[in-house]
Amino acid sequence: MEAKTYLELLAENDEEARKEFAPNAKELLTANFVEYDDHVDGHDNHPDELEDQHEFQREQGSHQVAALVPPPEKDVHASTTGVRYDKNVQIHVISIDSRFRSDQGDNPSNFLFKLLTPIKNVISVRLSSLEIPNTWYTFSEIRGNTSLIVNVQNAPNSNSLVQSARVVITEGNYTLNTLQTNDFLFEIFNQLNAAFSNVSFSVYFNTISGKITLSCFTKVNPPAGGYTYFNQPRRLLLGAPPTTGFETPLLVSFNFADSVYSTRDNNWGLGFNLGYQIKETKYATSHAADSIPDVNDTNYVFLSLNPDWRVVEHNQPDSTQTAAFAKVIVNVPKNDIVYDNGGNTITKQYYLRQPTNISVFNVSILDEYENYIQLEGGHISLTLEVTEVLHASLYETMRT
Fold this sequence. Notes:
Largest sheet: 7 strands, antiparallel
Number of strands: 17
Helix content: 10-25%
CATH architecture of the largest domain: Sandwich
Order of helices and strands: HHHEEEEHEEEEEHEEEEEEEEH
Mean pLDDT: 84
Distance between the termini: 98 Å
Structural class: alpha+beta
Region (Disordered): 41-60
Strand content: 25-35%
CATH class of the largest domain: Mainly Beta
CATH topology of the largest domain: Jelly Rolls
Shape: elongated
């Protein structure tokens, strides 16, 4: 008889062991039987019955399958150092300062800036920062609002029926009704009375309406030291005896549009800034303005880098249209710096129609009438982002 192997002996013993523990059907039926009371109020729940069967039947997923977190999106622009870049283009950051301009002309708001090395295949130019000193004058001969013509009828001690004079105010910036030395009302009063030695003028400012009234009088009863803004001539009533500080009214006419811009509808001369809507008045003893005086300059200027880069289009009153690279909002007082870092919503980027080589920028700052701003010794600086295309196929696509 052959000896049985270890595996055969293990199989026989395992089968006999299982027979010892094989359950009896009858015992299995009665072993765990428990008698329950049939008299139960309400729903007769079995102790093993689930309270919420619907929740049990709802799909809960498999506990044997781990929930997988989706991997983060791959950043195609990130390198091993975490710096974003695009191999198709290259951005050149150029700083331009009018102090280092190529042509040292008189006006730093209109100059050429030549690059030491031309940039080839440029597809866009963006203004990223701009600094302009708000030093240009609100009143200047270039703006045509520093003079007016005054005609006085029947002036005492005059050799003619009408005595005329051209009144010119000092170029610069003024305040209004601040009683400071640069008050616009002071300047108008002083220059009117300085232009005529035999008559006197009053400049009355209504603090309620905010409007000016100009009047002309004789100069017979001036106070000691003469008339001043705080001691102006007043109307002498008809038949009243001569009294110091009281004068007889005279007929006067004003030609406010004494400039090369007299044909404009707005900003046509000094009278417009004084608040008058008519350019020349008829003869009268006093003339009240139609609107409040304007001593504030325009609240924006334009930046031009190339005549063909038309990002902002501006309509003129004569239906013509001018264009510039950017519109810059002036939101600081005079003699402060206008900072523009591109934070507002105004577009300051130009896309060229095809790749172009750039070697020079024609930088200019213009007002609303396309006149060059006079910075009175100030200088501007700006930063440009010039995008150069490097990829050959991209270059061909944009070129065609």
